[in-house]
Amino acid sequence: MAPEIPDDSYLYRRVPIALYCTPDRVVSTAAFALATHRNEEALSVDWADLCSPEETRVRDRRNPKCFAVVKIKVRCVRNVVSAQPRLTVQHNPLLNDADLEDNPAHALIWGDNGIGVRRELRDACTDALGLECPDPPWKRKTTQT
Fold this sequence. Notes:
The protein has one domain. Helix content is 17%, strand content 21%. The chain is built from four helices and six strands; from the N terminus they run βαβαβαββαβ.
């Protein structure tokens, strides 16, 4: 049986940079949406006690620079008021799966994934890597030659 993840622990969520560096500088709620094209039933995260934010970022080896990583306290996940019943967090290590790379830090957030829940998760998360977003195109200075 997997260990209980304590309320004071953090979870990391890998987020496509386009959902992280939005024009209004707020992480998109889509960063916390289930991947319906993969028939996800729970939100995939990493337990921060077992990995670094950089390890979470490079799990997609094709192009890790296309991802940011946000962190959220487990207590905040369990206290999301929009979710009824409450969200649950389960350690779910990925080990010896022929289709997936081993990830002993893997965990799942189970429960409602509606827009209200995603807003609360977004509002409770913070950057885990210290990434700087480039200015949107309309704010960039152009030089004329």
